[in-house]
Design brief:
With 358 residues, the chain is of the alpha+beta class. Helix content is 24%, strand content 25%. The longest helix is centred in the C-terminal third of the chain and has 19 residues. The relative contact order is 0.13.
Length: 358
């Protein structure tokens, strides 16, 4: 079989072939981000430019393409002149390729010797909004076609855990590089679970954020920035799709920590009521933090169960509590590792399938 050889070439090309100009090659055509074949997942701004601009972690584009060759073009904000986003690129069922962007304009050869047939492509933003936006410009290949639509959708609202912060040390070990060098939203529990359930995902997540208070001297909380496309108080309001997600999974509270239960629970309930005004039919699961230590863990469990009960008494029977059995915090800066994100997804998957009948 040729696959081991092809895979070696594919992985090698992804490591070195980042440049600024598109390849001119017979039979290869460029397809821009506004082509109808592309499916976008997550918070994507398509209103102000021909490109698909996104800040949120986990934002992704999917498309089918044909032929042996594929090249992608991504613009990077290069925030502060130094921040370079990471992306994950997946072709067919081949291992994901983790790529850090190198410049404002990035033309990346991701395949040059594939079998001459149909393929699938997914490009996912691994880093979060604080690292700046990226713009999906398009791909160069033989032809493109739309992939079958997924029938399910899940929104994950959370903090650094949901972002996939600190979970991937495959290219740079913990403590090396810059704080976002171990970010990998594609490997986060939300994206892992969504792939298992064949669902579209959306990650509404910011490292350090809380419901009533945040960590690391941050002055913003999730209720303040939830409706902003870039999670900035002064940012533009995101024009959401008209359809509600089937499921909303909230994992907040780690950064609120041990505090007055009345303040935390009241802020959480208020946020849920605001969310319910937007999402009339979505099932909501309120999760205790999977990285809470032995002191915070029982407190968080009590909080989410009390909050769900309060909503039930108010007439909303579609808000459910969930607490993890394990404690997952052996990755960078005490975040879950990629393996632990799989374990988190394992626990949550059982509950979601029972709850949703999936």
């Amino acid at each position: 079989m040729r696959w081991p050889f092809l895979l070696s070439l594919l992985l090698l090309s992804s490591c070195v072939s980042i440049y600024g100009l598109r390849t001119e090659k017979e039979g290869i055509h460029f397809f821009g981000a506004d082509h109808e074949a592309f499916r976008l997942m997550g918070r994507v701004d398509t209103l102000h430019q021909q490109f698909a601009r996104c800040w949120a972690p986990g934002t992704a584009v999917e498309v089918g393409f044909t032929g042996t060759f594929c090249e992608i073009e991504i613009q990077d904000e290069v925030r502060f002149g130094t921040c370079h986003n990471y992306i994950e690129v997946v072709i067919d069922d081949l291992p994901p390729q983790r790529i850090q962007l190198k410049a404002e304009r990035n033309v990346i050869l991701i395949a040059d010797d594939l079998p001459d047939t149909k393929h699938t492509l997914l490009i996912c933003k691994n880093t979060e909004a604080a690292i700046g936006y990226i713009e999906f410009v398009g791909i160069s290949c033989e032809s493109v076609f739309p992939l079958p639509a997924k029938k399910r959708s899940i929104e994950f609202i959370g903090d650094s855990i949901t972002c996939g912060n600190g979970c991937d040390d495959s290219q740079m070990t913990c403590g090396e590089g810059i704080w976002y060098d171990q970010h990998n939203a594609y490997l986060s529990f939300g994206c892992v679970l969504s792939r298992r359930l064949e669902a579209n995902w959306e990650l509404t997540a910011v490292s350090g954020i809380g419901i009533s208070r945040s960590c690391c001297s941050s002055k913003i909380t999730m209720p303040q920035v939830y409706d902003r496309i870039d999670f900035q108080v002064t940012g533009e309001v995101w024009k959401r799709p008209e359809t509600d997600p089937d499921l909303v999974v909230i994992t907040l509270g780690q950064n609120d920590g041990l505090q007055d239960s009345t303040i935390f629970c009241r802020a959480y309930v208020d946020f849920l009521k605001t969310l319910r005004q937007r999402y009339k039919t979505s099932t909501v699961i309120c999760c205790a933090s999977p990285m809470a230590n032995s002191e915070l863990k029982p407190v968080m469990k009590n909080y989410v169960f009390s909050i769900a009960e309060a909503l039930k008494k108010d007439g909303d029977n579609n808000v459910l509590p969930f607490a993890y059995e394990g404690i997952y915090r052996t990755g960078c800066t005490f975040h879950p590792t990629a393996g632990e994100h799989n374990s988190i997804a394992n626990e949550l998957e059982v509950f979601v399938r029972q709850t949703m009948g999936w």
